[in-house]
Write a structure and sequence with these properties.
Helix content: 40-55%
Shape: elongated
CATH class of one domain: Mainly Beta
CATH superfamily of one domain: Galactose-binding domain-like
Radius of gyration: 31 Å
Number of strands: 18
């Protein structure tokens, strides 16, 4: 415990505290900030240093946790020595006041709200990719994973697992979200930029998988504090506290504070950068100029949307520069910004090509001549405006806040009341702002935001133009067209970093008025009325988030995965069924490989070439002690020479929040994993009657069926519109197929259960399946049976069924397309 606390201080506090206290750049100015904000900067600077060090070390394939600790210890020692004993403020520091309680309350509330975090370590979606990327940085010390399992796959068998996509950006997929860059070297690159994974790596090194998962919650707390301190500078502590209190209660912040994502990282980084920029330029503290550039360009290693933040900040800075006679650019900001942006651009366009290719393609299609001409004209106009600012500055300074506020109010009213789909504009794009207000912001807060635009924005615009321009620019950029499917909570990710917290600050400032509160009846009445509105809004946010508060996404998946991983050794090669089978079993492969370090490969096809499979298994058995298969049905893998021996099976259900498109989710559903583990061997199987008890270790024989079920004491599967059975061990003298089936109580409103049976493409006839389980026999032509026995691949028994949907007919949640219940298959 002492070592954990010491490492956390060395990485998360001491470097920033010492850097902040260095007797440079008018230290007395930053010593005059509130003590709580000084502590905030200590943490922010330390975290930024630590993550920069992790990224540099990992880029050089040199990251190790002990190296990071030694590097941080070296920095701390260097700062102490270089300060020459002048680290004390010596009475220039501002003393603690009552406002120090406010961030402490926010931290306490966030600790209560944001923990426990989800157990999302599996693959399939972004959170699992982030977690596994971070763990891989810790385990392998590099941004690009060198995966020996990939490198060991012989060239003739690569198409079984990662066929070449013939893309310029990458070779193929290792897992969803993990790109194979070079199969010969085993080079694998995660899908997402590495700033958030770098922090996960540090969390993993500090406290194992628990520390890795909790990283997102600590980022969320840092985001809340960043929003608070920027809001406190612009609107005063009361409005800032109200806004961040609402943010902490909000369902979107709650969800993504527990759900690994980089949007919450961008929230912390952008608001801290905006605050540093304001401290440097509006408050004339040169220390914060390079800090602002550092924090903002560091976000290029987190999300590509950081380019938008950089463009908006630079645009607002230029506006300030040409509009006021007292403004000036600090080169201590400009030079680090140029260097950081160039480094970030190089990183995105080169290493992160699979992530950045859409932006790169868009830029490559821009007309170069017209673009350069436009940039030249724009630069000339800026310089001309700067030169004439003494004459026009007063007019520009007066008109700009009102003009920008009027534009934003007009756009907001149009988007909320008038905008409708048409042409290429989809409904969810056209109604993006309307959906945001209805589902997330609430109409009282939307009205407060409009009031803030009308009355607060013009009055306080020049106090922090970068914050307001960034808020307005992001709102226009995103609500013009979200470019995402409006599935909650996925839609929330786009407005979480800047728009939601920024609007809460603006709306709270409009409701509570100026700070300090005027000690007049009107001033006090306004505060009381504003607090009443905020209390109403907060109660709505609390109610919306109530179903989510006790929920832990994928609770208990970690001990389940640990038990599963315990069944394999480092000398076993585990083949997992294809993600094209319709099951989600493939999502378990990612943590098995990249957290629990098991040799795992995911099949690409549900019907891989039998000769390729046999050849690969023969090769793998010379390298590994065992070759295992894990599946839940849907893979045709067997052949005459390749046999599968059942070892074990399992079935588990874990909590998963529902996905909705027209309202906030409210219910917790059950995600099920049902699979069997088989050992693959090269043996000539004995011929004889083929008897398959469907639903009982049948995973390598069924394709395109629904999951296993129990009914009437039988193990069964529902067929789909076209399901297949792989029939092995044929001798050539088989004459009959017997299927034990039931229509499953098909309602009268549904079409009758008609099943057409085909054997290796030859129709054996059709039958109408009735209620209750009965045997239905079909004759196999002798020539067809003899031909099936002559080939190595299993015969294919295809069942084409009429289907019905319980959701359409019975109006229940089950949206499956159901054929018939299949209990047993016999070929004799």
């Amino acid at each position: 415990m002492v070592g954990l606390v010491g490492a956390a201080l060395l990485l998360g506090y001491l470097p920033g505290a010492l850097l902040y206290r260095l007797p440079l750049c008018r230290r007395d100015t930053r010593a005059g900030l509130a003590p709580e904000e000084r502590v905030f900067w200590h943490v922010v600077l330390s975290v930024s240093w630590t993550l920069t060090a992790v990224l540099v070390l990992a880029a050089l394939d040199l990251y190790r946790f002990d190296r990071l600790l030694w590097l941080s210890a070296g920095l701390v020692t260097t700062l102490v020595v270089s300060a020459r004993g002048h680290l004390l403020y010596r009475r220039s520091a501002r003393r603690i006041t009552w406002t120090a309680v406010l961030p402490l309350v926010l931290i306490a509330l966030a600790l209560w709200r944001f923990f426990p975090v989800s157990e999302y370590i599996i693959g399939g979606r972004d959170p699992g990719v982030y977690i596994n990327e971070g763990v891989q940085i810790s385990q392998r010390g590099s941004l690009v994973v060198t995966d020996p399992v990939v490198a060991d796959v012989p060239a003739f068998a690569r198409d079984l697992f990662f066929p070449q996509y013939y893309e310029d950006e990458y070779y193929s997929l290792r897992f969803m979200g993990m790109f194979v860059m070079d199969p010969r070297a085993g080079a694998v690159l995660g899908q997402f930029p590495h700033l958030f994974p770098a922090s996960i790596a540090v969390g993993y090194d500090l406290h194992g998988l628990t520390g890795a998962r909790q990283t997102v919650a600590w980022w969320a707390i840092l985001g809340v504090l960043s929003v608070y301190f920027l809001g406190a500078r612009w609107a005063g502590p009361l409005a800032a506290f109200a806004a961040t209190l609402l943010l902490t209660l909000h369902v979107a912040q709650l969800w993504f504070a527990r759900y690994p994502n980089s949007d919450i990282v961008m929230q912390a980084g952008v608001f801290a950068a905006l605050l540093a920029f304001a401290r440097a330029h509006q408050d004339d503290d040169a220390f914060f100029a390079p800090v602002a550039a550092w924090l903002l360009t560091q976000q290029l290693f987190s999300r590509v949307e950081a380019l938008v933040a950089i463009a908006l900040l630079l645009g607002s800075a230029l506006l300030y520069w040409i509009s006021t006679t007292s403004s000036r650019f600090r080169w201590s900001f400009v030079i680090p910004m140029l260097v950081g942006t160039a480094a970030g651009w190089l990183y995105l366009s080169q290493l992160m090509r699979p992530y950045f290719w859409r932006v790169d393609m868009f830029i490559s299609k821009l007309p170069v001549t017209e673009l350069m001409t436009g940039l030249g004209v724009g630069l000339l106009a800026i310089l001309l405006a700067r030169a004439m600012r003494r004459r026009w500055a007063t007019h520009i300074e007066r008109v700009t806040p009102w003009a920008t506020a009027a534009i934003l109010i007009g756009l907001a009213l149009y988007a909320y009341f008038l905008r409708e789909p048409g042409g290429t504009l989809t409904e969810f794009d056209a109604h993006a702002l309307r959906d945001f207000v209805t589902v997330y912001l609430g109409w009282p807060m939307f009205a407060a935001v409009l009031a803030g635009l009308a009355f607060v924005w013009p009055k306080h615009f020049w106090r922090d133009p970068t914050f307001l321009v960034t808020l307005g620019g992001f709102s226009i950029f995103l609500f013009r067209k979200l470019y995402i499917v409006p599935e909650h909570f996925w839609m929330a990710r786009r407005f979480l970093p800047v728009i939601l917290p920024g609007m809460l600050i603006l709306g709270s400032a409009a409701l509570l008025g100026p700070w300090p509160v005027p000690r007049t009846r009107l001033g006090l009445t306004r505060v009381v009325g504003g607090l009443a509105v905020l209390l109403f809004v907060g109660s709505g946010y609390l109610t919306a988030a109530a179903p989510l508060a006790p929920h832990v996404e994928y609770r208990n998946i970690i001990p389940y995965l640990e038990r599963l991983a315990g069944q394999f050794s480092e000398r076993d090669l585990v083949l997992v069924e294809s993600r094209n089978t319709g099951s989600d079993l493939h999502v378990l492969a990612l943590p098995l490989a990249y957290i629990y370090a098991k040799p795992v490969l995911v099949l690409h096809s549900v019907t891989p070439d039998p000769q390729q499979v046999r050849g690969f298994v023969e090769y793998a058995l010379r390298t590994y002690d065992r070759v295992l298969f894990v599946g839940t049905g849907g893979t045709s893998l067997l052949s005459r020479e390749l046999q599968a021996t059942p070892l074990s099976s399992d079935r588990v259900q874990i909590d998963e929040f529902e996905v909705t498109t027209d309202r906030l989710p409210r219910e917790v559903l059950q995600k099920e994993f049902d699979y069997g583990i088989y050992q693959l061997t090269l043996d000539a199987g004995s011929a004889g009657p083929f008897i398959l008890d469907v639903g009982e270790r049948d995973d390598l024989h069924v394709v395109r069926t629904h999951a296993k079920e129990m009914t009437e004491g039988r193990t069964i599967r529902w067929t789909q519109d076209a399901s297949e059975i792989a029939v092995t061990g044929l001798g050539g003298d088989e004459r009959e197929v017997v299927l034990t089936m039931s229509d499953g109580g098909r309602p009268a409103a549904a079409v009758a259960a008609q099943v057409n049976v085909m054997f290796n493409g030859t129709s054996l006839g059709s039958v109408t399946v009735g209620a209750g389980f009965r045997e239905y026999a079909f004759q196999i032509p002798p020539a067809v049976a003899a031909a099936a026995a002559q080939v190595s691949a299993p015969a294919t028994l295809r069942l084409v069924s009429t289907v019905w949907s319980p959701r359409d007919i019975l109006k229940v949640a089950d949206g499956r397309e159901l054929g018939v219940m299949l209990d047993k298959v016999t070929v004799r």
